[in-house]
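Page 47, continued from p. 46.
Same chain as before, 286 aa.
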Amino acid sequence: MKNEMHPHLQKCSAQSPSKKRIDTSTVPGSASGAFLPVTPLKSGRKIENHISTCSWLSMEKWETARLSRRQMITTAIVVAASVVLGNRRPWAATRYPKTIKLLESARAQEMAKYYQYMAFGRKAKEEDYKGIAYLFTALAAAELIHAQNFEKILSRLDVEISRVGKPRITVAQTHDNLMKAADEEINDIDTFYPSMIAHLKPEGFHDAITFATFAWESEKQHRDILMKIQRWAPWFFEKVAKNIDEETDKYFVCQFCGSTVDEIPSDTCPICHLSSEHYRKIEYPI
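Result:
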């Protein structure tokens, strides 16, 4: 008695099984006893990434071939890998949702300050305040390191990193730009970073807390530099600016934490406590 072939297989029978390709990701697991209407792969033959029109699970009156041992092992590995990799992002997002949100906000803010300080530096150079232009360049370098540190932590949490767009920046006269920069640094020190660190602690991702603390301490250094200028600038700005031009020699920024100083510490960075070899001299803006 002749075996009756299912209409779907009759349609496929005109095509050579040896030329068909199977996407093993479509096979639901590697359960024992699973059947496919294909010929088992020969040793050393790779599984291609195209689905066969005949790859269906066995049913009554279907002509099938049992999965080879190699196919079953390969399928199990593919499925297991997809499960593990597919669950990494949900795991991080579920365990550290507030941490991720805070890091994204801090990264965006630090990038905005980087762009702003670079713009302020260009304005100061245009107005021939060379020392202040150099100061803004050094501050911008530190803010960029803070943003990059937050980005590294987000990457470790499997967060997709998107490009931070350049914000709209209002550039005034250098005198006013200095006042604005000082006010913003004070806000970061008194409000933004203390609040961020307090909200990071409950989820306990320690590297996020550490880098936020580094940024906080670095901003205090920025505040100290800017407030020396701000204290006298309202009445004696031109004289202060001239003194900065004459007295400013060099600025150095720690490439690990963003610490900003005018003289390299003799031993270690006062913020991250790593070797002072991590400091790099900031070049004058061209």
